[in-house]
Amino acid sequence: MSFSQSFRPRHRISAPILTIALWPLAAWAHVSAGEAGGLLSGLSHPVSGLDHVVAMIAVGLWGAQLGMPALWILPVAFPMMMAFGGLLGLLGTPLPGVEVGIAASAVVLGALVLGRVRLPLAAAVALVGVFAVFHGHAHGTELQAGQNAILYSLGFVIATGLLHGVGIAVGLIQRWSLGRQALRGAGALVMAAGVYFLWGAVA
Fold it and tell me: Where are the transmembrane segments (predicted)?
């Protein structure tokens, strides 16, 4: 038997075997792309709109003003309730006035920072929790087809926590008298931005 005769059968057999062996890898690559897309979309979505950014930073600013334990409870309560709102959005559950609720969150939170308003902890948690549902619902309804919903949700929760962290870090300037005034000025800017967004939402 010549070399060419012995090689041909093996070559014919190896092609389907190679296809079968590589099929799971091709399928896994497709899943990984969807998962990566979902996570990256979730991470980028909260920072893609200024209305989300200013409200989430304001939560951190207000938490820094209120001090412990609100300093860490508010940035935990907001993403948790936002995840709930995101689930409602993913399921297609309607929520009236989402854009108005998002804009109103910036107005109210900015006003609270500007006025250095100290609410009872339960009331503060309830307030940010209600606003978080609107933000989460907006994120949930914008999941793109083929992306992993769980990783998308994880992404926007992580990004939200980071924005809260920015607000907390900036809020540390309240240790100084000039810093407290600057913090109130930041609250005024957030409130002004919220009024602008609210006008756009109702106009």
Answer: 43-64, 97-114, 121-138, 150-173, 185-202
